[in-house]
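Bench log. Compound arrived from synthesis this morning; before running ITC I wanted a structural hypothesis for how manganese (II) ion sits in the protein. Inputs:
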Amino acid sequence: MLVVIIAEEVRTALREGRGVVALESTIISHGLPSDSSARVARQIEAAVRESGAVPATIAIVGGQVRIGLDDNALDQIATNGSVVKSSIRDLASVIVSGVLGATTVASTAYLAHRAGIQVFATGGLGGVHRGAGQSFDESADLTALAHTPVALVCAGVKSILDVSATLERLETLSVALVGYRSAKFPGFYIQDSGYAVPWVAQSATEIADTMVARNALGLEQALVVANPIPDGKEMPRELHKTTLAAALKSLQDNKITGKDVTPFLLGFFHEHTDGVSLQANIDLVVNNARLAGDIATAFPAALAGAMSDSFS
Ligand code: PSU
Ligand code: MN
């Protein structure tokens, strides 16, 4: 049973020490409307290439983990309605059952790290849900990042989550958090969630240096790079606020739980904002992919320039 297949282009880039950026597939299968997801997935990959890095979208196809998808596999993930959202605990069962699996932040980070990929781009991180004190609904993304040393570029977390509690959990789990050219923790569709980040980096090189220092320290936690949606691309605040309130109410009315919560809320936004949330989503993911490409491209030089005694 061959469980993991790394695409030729990705394997070559890794062997030659060139930049590679991992991309998750749940964003494609469950985070975007199906009529645009294949196009957007290719836009994301193109943004990584424009920064001089190689994209490696990760998914489970035909009982095998694929690190880097060909056109056919990417189309299947984007358009096949029966793709299973696969977090870390689902991986082995998805492989054995042979169903199509889309990987979340948690499982993508895990698989990327095991494949030797250090940089990963997504849209928004999973986190602590509102009411988690009662429901215990906290994304496995958080615990995965606590022991997976990748750099993850995201636009913060959506305000469908409890942003404050999510930041507290990241702190408890010792997950590093750095804002990119901003001291504000972004709120996905909006540049400022109302909370601050503990550190700010001004360049991709500074982030690559931070990864090198983290690795030299032997730390196993992820570095979350919070990259706000570009200027002028935010969702209008009022539309954001009213849609959020309606989405949370609909979630309760429909008694949605477990892994369906996040896709439900994302879908609600896309269905009720006449394309506005979709466009913001595309803009921020492409922006993240570009920055991740810049970081991956800067990483080899940062590594070469570092000198350190080892802890071993
Ligand atoms: N947040 C977003 N867009 C997404 C997701 C989260 O803004 O597409 C997806 C990611 O794949 C993330 C997952 O890892 O949802 C988290 O799901 P859950 O809350 O069930 O852990
Ligand atoms: Mn959950």
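What the model suggests: The pocket of pseudouridine-5'-monophosphate (ligand 1) is lined by residues 24, 26-27, 31, 104-106, 123-124, 126, 139-141, 158, 188, 259, 262, 266 (CB under 6 Å). The longest strand covers residues 54-61.
ITC booked for Thursday regardless.
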